[in-house]
## 1
Amino acid sequence: MAAPAQTILGIETSCDETAAALVRRHADGSGEILANIVLSQIEDHAPYGGVVPEIAARAHASHLDRLIVAALAEAAITLDDIDGIAATAGPGLIGGLLVGLTTAKALALAKNKPLAAINHLEAHALTPRLLGPLEFPYLLLLISGGHTQIQIVEGVGRYRRIGTTIDDALGEAFDKTAKLLGLPYPGGPQVEALARQGNPKRFDFPRPLKGREGCNFSFSGLKTAIRETVEELRPLTQTDIADICASFEAAVAETMRDRLSRALKFFKDEFPDVRQPVLVVAGGVAANKTLKSSFENICRRLGFNLMVPPAHLCTDNAAMVAWAGAERLALGLADPLNATARARWPLDPQAKRLTGAGVKA
Ligand code: KG4
Ligand code: ZN
């Protein structure tokens, strides 16, 4: 029997966005966003060139309550009208996770509602199912400031990681490149904008792991090459900066093309019966148009449909957390009130932890 319609409150506090949302999962499995409020802390962290965990945790503690109230007001419902509460429990910065999860537990206890302690990566992975029909299995490329992974999404709670970064995340590589060039944080959008005016062929930066077995990523060598180039050229002209951005993006696009085409072929071999395979791309870096058009090309070539949720649902938000909660609660997967926050929490528990991995999962 189909689960009845459920309205879920979602809470996201794992990094530098404080977010609250209300999402309804209808009996037919379709989703509807009733409210989705995100408060970015970018300005609080910008002077430091990256996210400062203590500042993030304090900001979540200061703002979360009123964001929940605002989300309920926007959806024109009260806590009595909701059917469950979902909060990100990991992976992420532990201080922020504790703020969100503890708030969710208090509300669940006070209102006697089920709790869903959500893996942030699962929330990204399931987002396209909030937006429209999408059957399992599908392939997920998650590219954000904290994660760079390729997962096969086989079902709710069922993931197989087939690729991950062995050092920096892709968003981190964009942010570090920007920092080396004296551009403000977060650097991704700045690097993309400047790259449009630059010459992508001027510098031959490395294409890390290109041609190697498997689908893993590495970006730290690229960062080193950029640092060396910056030191050689100093003082940099505007043209130098634009050319470095364009050459960096070209190197990233070529590496991603190589790694991703292996993943797509692997998926097709594993699931020959899936008639129309789908690649979902999520995370802040999915906003990059150069990379997106290169993903489109690979998908066209290998017969995949490409799905990239709109930017506000690709970057961190609470609607995706509420939706993951709705999917889990519909399957009876509630969590106990002593569920713990976890700084590290791999989606695929079988996946090997890579030595030197600078990532959270
Ligand atoms: O998913 P997200 O909002 O937050 C997490 O990291 O979880 O991703 C933020 C990352 C940052 O590293 C930012 O520089 C990168 O996404 N980013 C971009 C672009 N927009 C955001 N990177 C490349 N090109 C962009 N247009
Ligand atoms: Zn995220």
## 2
Amino acid sequence: MSNKRIAVYPGSFDPIHNGHLDIVERCLPIFDELVVGVLGNEAKRPVFSVAERVEMIREEVAGLSGCKVESFSGLLVDFMEEIGARTIIRGLRAISDFEYEFQMALMNRRLNPDIETVFFAPREEYSYLSSRLVKEVYFLGGNLEGLVPGRVLARLAEVKDERKVGEAE
Ligand code: ADP
């Protein structure tokens, strides 16, 4: 294994929003490489395919050196082994995130004792933001300016248009 400090920021990112990007920017200076790991979890019935989510994130992190975007399925610890990563990055918004995140961190440590999970707190204005809320608010016509990158808003607009066409048929 190389001595490079490689961290993985795993998640669904359906879609990526400014809270996620805030975490990426906060942890980048601390690691040699950060891999945003997009989970192909179809059980969550995502709006965007894994390939679309990877592409959207790549567009947003294009200017950040040391940041890569990959998709994975199966166990996170197996993906980490493959790419030589030792650290899991997760965002902690509120106490409500804590219990689930704590369980996952301990389970991942049990699966591979060499792996540590590190939590980052986002900027306050993003602390209530989630991909679920982004989708709900967007499809109900709410304004998401300042919370979601412009390119992501454009992709959401395409989905909304496709849905309208689908409904009209
Ligand atoms: P998952 O399905 O794994 O929860 P998400 O895409 O919802 O995937 O979130 C990925 C990671 O980003 C999680 O650690 C989550 O806590 C964190 N996160 C989500 N929203 C925010 C936010 N607004 N600020 C900081 N971290 C966030």
